[in-house]
Amino acid sequence: MTAEPVGAAPGGLSRRRRRQLSLGGQYGLFGAAVLAIALLADWSTLRLNFANWDVARDLFPEIITTGLRNTAVYTAVGFGLGLALGLVVALMRLSSALPYRWFATVYIEVFRGLPLLLIFIFVGVGVPLAFPGTNIPGGAVGQAGLALGLVAAAYMAETIRAGIQAVPKGQLEAARSLGMSHAKAMRSIILPQAFRIIIPPLTNELVLLCKDSSLMLFLGATLEQRELTKFGRDLAGQVGNTTPIVVAGICYLLITIPLSLLARRLEARQRRGQR
């Protein structure tokens, strides 16, 4: 009897060869599916409704000067507020005072558990009802920034806490042995190192906030306050065509793709620095 080669599977094919055939079959099925979609799709109708150049041309420059600008402003304000509040909540989460830890834990769990849409509704409707005659500073920018910042702070607080705990405890002990107070040691030694660690996840959070700013449409923004999603939806309703929504999506990609690439580069640099 002739012995089968080591690693050979029943039928005389090696495991490597069977894996190659399996991958080839999967690639073939995928290619066939793409080809079938390409051949069966009504491209002329799709182009007319989703990529109508005449409709897209009329969106400029307002979609940039109004929609894209407002999206960037709402995102920046929400990120700034979220970062500041998240730092405070993270320090409370690490505090030795039990009430601070309880408050931080409840805040994080509540605002991470609630849908962002409910937060926007609460900010736009609940705050004026709870405090009659009170206006959130900044108008639409303040409302959007507050809603985004409250939720972002809950996620950033956990990210910052993890970054602080990733710094070796010996760093704080060495600073205290040199006569530094705990607050000064945290400010001068621990936090700078922690933020270098958490820059990639904070960049990812910025990408998420950019997309979440689309919920601003539920606050009833005026024409000059519209962000990309509301801008595209309003124009799509006016012209009876979905091209404005597609163009708005492309504008989102102009923001999110560079930020995503930046986050990946920062993560790769951080991995190289840890070797």
Give a description of the structure:
The chain is an all-alpha fold and 275 residues long. The protein has a single domain (58-274), classed as MetI-like (MetI-like fold), CATH 1.10.3720. The chain contains eleven helices and no strands. It has helices at 15-40, 43-50, 53-57, 62-93, 98-113, 116-130, 140-166, 169-177, 182-212, 228-239, 243-274. The longest helix has 32 residues, at 62-93. The mean pLDDT is 86.
What tags apply to this protein structure?
275 residues; mainly alpha; MetI-like fold; 77% helix; flat
Round the Cα radius of gyration to an integer and report it.
26 Å
The geometry reads as flat
* Contiguous uncertain segments of 5+ residues: none
Strand content: under 5%
Q: Kindly state the mean pLDDT as a whole number?
A: 86
How many individual helices? Answer: 11
Give helix % range.
Answer: over 70%
Number of strands: 0
Structural class: mainly alpha
The CATH homology group name: MetI-like
CATH domain class name:
Mainly Alpha
Question: Within the CATH hierarchy, at the fold level, what is the topology?
Answer: MetI-like fold
Describe the main β-sheet briefly.
Answer: none
**Count of discrete structural domains:** 1
* CA distance, first residue to last residue: 53 Å
| CATH architecture level-2 label | Orthogonal Bundle
Order of helices and strands: HHHHHHHHHHH
